[in-house]
Amino acid sequence: MIWNETFLIALAWQVLAVSTGAYVVLMILIKRDNIAATTSLLFLGPSVTAIIAFFVFSEPLTPITISGFFMASNRLYLVTHNSSQN
Predict the structure, then answer these.
(1) What integer is the mean pLDDT of 38-45?
(2) Which DSSP string do the residues of the chain spell out, in sequence order?
(3) pLDDT of residue 24
């Protein structure tokens, strides 16, 4: 690891903007919805990552990947839809 100005700027960006920003968004979502609906959004992480990898790195979307995306999306809809009615 080379501790130069470029590395320190990138490290500061990751610590301050990305990590802190993610926690702030998480707390705002928890305040707006209940915690179950908010944390269920984390199940979309692998699906979104697969879609980004498809567009950025030309990785194939297999039928298993697509079916997992639809299953996670369906379950997320059930959790958020039911929590908004309470």
Answers:
(1) 84
(2) ----HHHHHHHHIIIIIIIHHHHHHHHHHHHHS-HHHHHHGGGGHHHHHHHHHHHHH-----HHHHHHHHHHHHHHHHHHHHHHH-
(3) 92
The domain locations on the chain are: 22-85
Per-residue CA distances from 73 to 1, 2, 45 (Å): 40, 42, 11
Quote the CA–CA distance of 86 and 83 in Å, as a whole number.
5
23-43 in b/e burial notation, b at 16+ Cβ within 10 A? eeeeeeeeeebeeebbebeee
Task: Check pLDDT > 90 for residue 12.
Answer: yes
Joined together, the tokens standing for residue 64 give 């298993």
Residue 30 CA, distance from chain mean position:
15
Answer whether 40's CB lies under 8 Å from 75's CB. Answer: yes
